[in-house]
Amino acid sequence: MKFICTSLPFGQELLFCLDSNEPDCCDIFYNKAVPDHHRIVIILKEEHNVRKLFCLLLCTLFCLGLFAGCGSDTTQGSVDPGTITEETVDYRGVKVGLLLNQTATDNGWSQAMAQSLQRTKDELGLSDSQIIVVENIPDASVEADSSIVQLIDEGCNLIIGGSSGFTKNMNAAYTAYPDVYFAQFEGDSADNYCSFTCVDIEAIFMCGYAAALMSGVAELGFVAAQPQSSVIRAINAWSAGAKAANPNATVRVMWVNSWYDPATEKECATTLIQAGVQSMGYHGGTTAVCEACEDAGAYVTGFHTDKEAYAPQAVLTSFCWNWTPIFNEIITQVATESWTSDTKYGNMADGVAGIAPWNADIMPQEVINQCNEMYEAIVDGDYVVLEGPVVDNQGNEVLPEGETFTIKELVNCYFLLDNVIGKLP
What is the pLDDT of residues 242-252, one digit of tens each? Predict the structure, then answer.
């Protein structure tokens, strides 16, 4: 039998040993150091009797009373994922199912999700049997519904919707399974349901900033997958970065209208290049835009994962997702029964949103230095991305002077910045 106490100040595990051969004797000794989370472990070697229980209670009360005055703060239900590690949390009761709409090796969005969950597995010490990844599930499909049910039948008590297209499926599932936890990318919230997202505008801003510095003309381009809020947000952040580097910069948008269409992506990139664009941004799931820029001698910033290897003479940097801190937080809340339905998010300073290393082979050092200075200004809070006033390309003020967008407003972004050439489909 074990009794866990969280009020000891010594960072030590105390072991009380009650041997059946000496029922009147109770040994107390330090077993090992336990950082941050302090435990008393009491072990009865055989079936207890009244004398053993009496000794057990005396030992327990003695230690609790002795050390109560110098105990640490252990408010119940308050979990700080930044200080909790696999040494202090028992994750064995958590089993995670991740739904992906592409393959886990797509060099894009789904790969970033899968890699992030793998890092979480390693950092939290989860076993292979505690993670199930289901790939190539169509968004908002009956197959997505059945996959969720299958994951729950296989013992998953946390389902992660790895695409905004699964929101409708997750919304139906969380009410049907109140004892299972659900986390959906930019979804809704309920007692057993939370949304997660990323304040990605800062890192995407840096991509646009670098692209504008490397362009010899003011008009830049952007190849966009779908008119979905996270893509629209990316266009605006990238365009804001371009405008910060060159106040005269404009960004012409070409829509692919698909999450995965290499041929159309290449066609969009070629059209922009033929129109005189020398540098462009990208939000999509293939390497086609990067390769088209490489062939034509144009510059591009990649998305989802580092794309430099696919077009080393074209890719300046790439926006990269790192969902590991978010997944760590969500899984820890499940394991510690401290679940909240609050939206989970992080930013560039948290390491959730990031950029790949600058491509020093094609970027002059002075440009890299200028980019690094802007990066540090953002991280230090000296420069605020998309701070008001913000005006859309229809002339409407969407954010007053001095204000910043809330998480909810970023998640529901549906306008194009004033220097964007194009319209929402």
Answer: 999 999 999 99
15-29, 120-134, 148-162, 192-206: which range is least confident on average? 15-29
Averaged pLDDT score across all residues of the chain? 84
Please tell me which residue, 109 or 62, carries the higher pLDDT value: 109
Instruction: State the Cα–Cα distance between residues 283 and 320, nearest whole angstrom.
Output: 11
H/E stretch holding 354: strand 353-355
Q: Three-state DSSP class for 337?
A: coil
Do 84 and 22 touch, CB atoms closer than 8 A?
no
Strand segments, DSSP code E, in 199-326 are 219-224, 250-255, 279-283, 299-302, 315-321
pTM for the model stands at 0.76
Instruction: Tell me the per-residue pLDDT of 113-130, one tens digit each, with 9 for 90 and over.
Output: 999 999 999 999 999 999
* CB-based contact 367:214 (threshold 8 Å): yes
The rounded Cα 371 to chain-centroid distance in angstroms is 24
Cα 374 to Cα 241: distance, rounded to the nearest angstrom: 10
Describe the crossing of helices 201-214 and 365-379 by its angle, rounded to 10 degrees. Answer: 160
State how far the Cα of 184 lies from the Cα of 169, in Å rounded to an integer.
Answer: 10
Taking the C-alpha atoms of residue 166 and residue 355, their distance in angstroms, rounded to an integer, is 27
Q: Output the pLDDT for position 425.
A: 86
φ, ψ dihedrals at 264, nearest 5°: -70, -35
CA distance 15 to 78: 27
Task: Report the pLDDT averaged over residues 180-195.
Answer: 97
Q: Based on the number of CB atoms within 10 Å of its own CB, is 247 exposed (0-12), middle (13-18) or buried (19 or more)? A: exposed
The rounded distance, in Å, linking the Cα atoms of 219 and 202 is 21
Consecutive H or E run containing 168? helix 167-176
